[in-house]
Structure formats: C-alpha cells, structure tokens
Amino acid sequence: MSTETLILDGNTVAGAIKQSLETRIARLAEHGITPCLATILVGDDPSSATYVRMKGNACKRLGMQSVRIELPASTTTDQLLEEIHKLNADPLVHGILLQHPVPHHIDERAAFDAIAIEKDVDGVTTLGFAQNAFGFANYPSCTPAAILAILQHYNLPMEGKHAVVIGRSPILGKPVSLMLLNANATVTTCHSKTANLEEIVRQADIVVAAVGKPKFVQGSWIKAGAVVIDAGYNKGNIGDVDYEACLPNASAITPVPAGVGPVTIATLLKHTVDAAERQINL
Predict the structure, then answer these.
(1) What is the CATH code for 32-116?
(2) Which residues of 218-243 are buried (b: 16+ CB within 10 A; e: fewer)?
C-alpha cells in the first residue's frame, strides 16, 4: 500500500455534514418544526429494505422524523402515485424518497416526476435534473452531490481537470457529469458502448466509477496521481473499482464501504433540513 495515497474517508465527511445540521435542526425546533423525510418502499427487495432502514435510523440519530411507507410488490403505478400525492400535500413532510428500483410493472419515471419539486430531496425528478444541469438545483441527486462534497472537503481541485465518469444513469452518471462540468472540469462520460474505455480512463485526473460492476476499474487504467471515486456498491461490500490494484497509482481514493455511501445519506439529511427551512423561509 502506498503511504502517499490519501484515503477519502466518507465517514469523516458525513460526520462534518451531520454536525453542521445539529444547530439548524435545533433552530427549526424553536419554530415548532421537525424536519421529516418520508421514504417509500415498494416490494420486498432486501437490499432496498436495508437502505430505507439505514436512512430512517440516520434521521432518528439527528432528531429528525422519518415516515416509512411500505407497499406490496403488487402495487400499481396509480396506487403509488396516490401515496406520493398524499405526501406532497402533507405540510409535516419536507422530503420524499422513493427507493429505487421499484417493481418492473410500475412506471418509475412517472412516480419520480410525481414528487413535488420542493420535496424532491433525492434529486430524481426531470425538473430537478434540468435545474442541476443549469447549476441551480436546490437538491441535486444525492450520490453526485456526495461525490462533490468529498472532493471539496479534501480540497481536491476540479477546475481545469479532466474527469472521466464511467456510467450514465439519470440519478448518478449523468448528473455527476453535469456537476463536474459546472465546477469547470472537462468531462468525458463513458458507458457500456464506449470504445477504448481503458485508454480514456488513463487520461483522467479524476475517475468516477458508477458502472455497477464489481472491481470493474483496473489498476492499470489509473494514471499516476489520479483521484479515484468509487460510487459503486455491489454484493459483498465490493465497489466498482479494484481498490488494492488502483491504490498504488491513485493520489486519493474512496474505499468501499465507508466512502461515498455515508456521504450520500448525510446529503439526503441535509437536503431534508434545507427543505424544512425553505418551507418557513428560514
């Protein structure tokens, strides 16, 4: 292991974000408001259930409220939309998170876009994506926002750097590409159809792996001094980056677990507090 490689500890970054929220939550309490995140889980996918439980526990630890809506896998799109509309209309709910993925028979995009923009704390709506592209989203997608928070926390420059993003999903690859572009990086977005992927990655000053394949990014792909951000999470606590192989060349790297994941949850909590403050123009 290289002693010079900076390990980007997500728990440290998440802790700083949560600490900054404590006084804001106390201030909201003085106005009789408890920030509230509503989570919707459709079906019985064990991984999704774990993620929802983690988010609820994180809320409770900070003195926030968590409302869990659990729906059977047989739920129709219309039934899901009805639940979302109820939460939109509830003034005590400040943020809404629909756990991805939903069962295949549900129109997930219609469900995401039914979430009111002022409660879209996970940055999943089409309007939220567009606002993020223009650089003024109140709540960009949480994992992309977490990635930028890590880079900023460790004072890793983005301006003028060549960032290569591997993945183009609408809630990770595409929005993080846009956010890096807005931070004045030069961005190449790669995907499963990209030719000569390894050669492109070797040119990167910043590599963001968001492809959903365990240990996909190889050590030989990383040029000396590159910053490696692993946004993947696969079965067995394995990221999208071959961590041990990439470590010697990287100047900084996120581990999995304890990298991007904790910061994503902290960002979700921050967005919910932001939404509660905006509700009363605080």
Answers:
(1) 3.40.50.10860
(2) ebebbeeebbbbbbbbeeeebbbbbb
Please pick, among 9, 18, 65, 99, the residue that the annotation labels catalytic.
99
Fold of 141-261: Rossmann fold (3.40.50)
Place 1 in a pLDDT band, splitting at 50, 70 and 90. Answer: very low
Domain residue ranges of the chain, discontinuous segments joined by +: 32-116, 141-261
What is the rounded distance in angstroms from the CA atom of residue 173 to the CA atom of residue 276?
Answer: 28
| pLDDT value, residue 3 | 58
Known binder of ligand: residue 167?
yes
pLDDT at residue 2 in the model: 44
**24 labeled part of a ligand binding site:** no
90 a catalytic residue: no
The verdict on whether residue 47 carries a ligand-binding annotation is no
Claim: this prediction has a pTM higher than 0.90: yes
Q: Which of 113, 120, 122, 230 is catalytic?
A: 122
